[in-house]
Amino acid sequence: MQTDIDECADAPCRNGGTCIDLIGKFRCECPPQWTGDTCQNDVDECESNVASGLGPCINAESCRNLPGSFQCTCLEGWGGPTCAKNLDDCVGKCKNGATCIDLVNDYHCACAVGYTGRDCSTDINECANFPCRNGGECVDFIGNFKCICPLGFSGTLCEEAKDHCVSSPCIEGQCLNTPGGYYCHCPPGRAGRHCEFPRVPCEKGGPCANGKCTFVSIFLVCFSPFLQDKAACDAQMWGEKLRRHCSKSSRSKRGMGKCLSTTCV
Question: Largest CB tally within 10 Å, which of 50, 138, 233, 256?
């Protein structure tokens, strides 16, 4: 009776190969990195991809064969054993709440409102284009601005002229809107800022005894047809309504031309 000899007893397979006993012989099943009858020959992994010459290396500059292994030298932006992993270039790059988009060996920052620049670190000056109108002062904020409007204007850009006549300030006459205020155009017979005073007509027998009578605002103005002596009122004499009498004995200086009275004589 014959006994089969176990050819695998002496572990003929090397480099992690598995020995399979056969009748009168054996077979080694080798790991992928080794070849040969006893797995004694190293497989050159870098020759496995003939087209690139880089074997298993993807996105690599070179492939180096090692005993039972290989080493890839990756291109910039790639990593991992076979250079198949796109490295994250966004770490710590974008500022001020920006969103980072990872590219191959690069990145792009989608900036938040109010910022610009490669890393979104520059504040945009919203006042650079002078958005405020009508002399408004522009104040820059992060992603915004504010117009400080001059008197008489309002609105986001100081574009609206304020209507000072909306409250009807003129008692009589027409209200004319002006920047920063209003003006009351009074009808005949009325005077004052709001046309609140009635004008007393300069009729015959009025306050001017010896000259022409006219009005300036709410004041009577008497024009004398002749000159008094130096101690009296000058050729043009003024008087406030319903005040004291200004007689020839008044001691107003020549050249002043103003006499605070109702009647200029």
Answer: 233
Extract long-range pairs of 76-79: CB within 8 Å, 24+ residues apart.
76/105, 77/104, 77/105, 77/106, 78/104, 78/105
**What is the pTM assigned to this prediction?**
0.44
* Residue 198 near residue 207, CB atoms below 8 Å: no
Segment 77-121, tens digit of pLDDT? 899 999 999 999 999 999 999 999 999 899 999 999 999 999 999
Question: Which residue, 64, 61, 65, 100, is CA-closest to 78?
Answer: 61
Distance CA 43, CA 50 (A): 14
Single-letter residue type at 239: G
- Domains of the chain from N-terminus onward: 45-86 (2.10.25.10), 163-199 (2.10.25.10), 200-265 (no CATH)
